[in-house]
Design goal:
The protein is α+β, with helices and mostly antiparallel strands. It has twelve helices and ten strands. It has two domains: 2-83, no CATH class; 106-336, Bira Bifunctional Protein, Domain 2 (BirA Bifunctional Protein, domain 2), CATH 3.30.930.10. A hairpin with a 2-residue loop joins strand 7 (240-247) and strand 8 (250-259). Helix 1 runs parallel beside helix 4 (51-81), helix 2 packs antiparallel against helix 4 (51-81) and helix 5 (106-120) packs across helix 11 (309-317). The structure holds phenylalanine.
């Protein structure tokens, strides 16, 4: 009886060894360990074994059972790992996992392009915090508390002297406080105003500020710079116009409009049917601002400008509503791939 079990054991283990698939293994398992398999059969037959042999036969059967179970488990693991030469380890014809490519946000695209264009004119990038002091956002920019321009731009105040900056102009102050002239910087960043959202306004938008300070800087330089920027950003067909304006921190001041690319200047909702879109405020830095940062206004002069990035993105890409820039609708964003 013991010899019979030994032979059966050898054969069973050989079958496990030869198995190629999980189904082969399952067949071996059923043949030996299944309810009607050979091993339960042997166990049942134990009672007919002479008592003096019973222990040895029982032991042989049990050890066979354990060895077979272990061999089956090991082989199953090997098959699923695909380590057998005959197992299909890697199928190069299966389609791969698709990872869709993301895209840059149009606001980022415009900022990056503006930085590249101004870099060609020698401008470097400076940055400042979104939370500003009232001093840098207003006072140092020659805008005292009682100034009428304060009522034009409703401000998110956080504390008596801290606010969410309403413009990127306070970065001008930060840079001039820290370094002597000459200065040639642009500063892209977020701005906040208590504006009611509509097709062209948002309470949170982006500007690019520019500041050029040296000994001989003229309004003509400012015009040339903004016209160059407009053509580089929008293409040679863009029209640029300057209108006299007022800002507390520049004198004289201008506003700069680009012709509307959504309608080609004919008039539409985006340009409020005027054919023009206001892009930038600009002017020659007011001597009082130089005085605030300790520059000698007799020695230096300069120009500054601040442009709305969303406005540029809207006319560059023909976006009819500023809110599309903030909704994060993938059908919209994926078009900027
Ligand atoms: N800060 C002004 C605004 O937000 C724009 C501006 C910048 C005007 C620099 C003049 C000079 O409207």
């Amino acid at each position: 009886m013991e010899d019979k079990i030994g032979a059966m054991r050898a054969e069973a283990l050989e079958q496990v060894d030869a198995a190629q698939t999980a189904a082969d293994l399952e067949a071996v398992r059923i043949a030996y360990l299944g309810r009607k398999g050979l091993l339960p059969e042997i166990m049942k037959g134990l009672r007919d074994v002479p008592p003096e042999q019973r222990a040895a036969v029982g032991q042989a059967a049990n050890s066979f059972k354990e060895a077979l179970a272990a061999a089956l488990a090991a082989k199953t693991a090997a098959l699923t790992r695909g380590t057998l030469p005959s197992a299909p380890a890697f199928d190069p014809t299966l389609p791969g996992t698709v990872h869709p490519r993301g895209s840059r946000h149009p606001v980022s695209l415009v900022i990056e392009e503006a930085v590249r264009i101004f870099a060609r004119l020698g401008f470097t990038v400076a940055e400042g915090p979104d939370i500003e002091t009232g001093y840098r956002n207003f006072d140092a920019l020659n805008t005292p508390d009682y100034h009428p321009s304060l009522s034009e731009q409703d401000t998110f105040w956080l504390q008596p002297d801290l606010l969410l900056r309403t413009q990127t102009s306070p970065v001008q102050i930060r840079v001039m406080e820290q370094q002597p002239p000459p200065i040639r910087i642009i500063t892209p960043g977020r701005c906040y105003r208590r504006d009611t959202t509509d097709a062209t306004h948002s309470a949170n938008f982006h500007q690019i500020e520019g500041l050029y300070v040296d000994t001989e800087v003229s309004l003509a330089d400012l015009k040339g710079t903004l016209a160059y920027f407009a053509r580089q950003m929008m293409g040679p067909g863009v029209q640029v116009r300057f209108r006299p304006h007022f800002f507390p921190f520049t004198e004289p001041s201008v506003e700069c409009d680009f012709s509307c690319h959504v309608c080609g200047g004919k008039g539409c909702r985006v340009c409020k049917h005027s054919g023009w879109i206001e892009i930038a405020g600009a002017g020659m830095v007011d001597p009082r601002v130089f005085a605030k940062v300790g520059y000698d206004a007799e020695q230096v002069c300069g120009y500054a400008f601040g442009m709305g990035i969303e406005r540029i993105a809207m006319i560059k890409y023909g976006i009819p509503d500023i809110r599309m820039l903030y909704e994060n609708d993938l059908r919209f964003l994926a078009q900027f791939r």
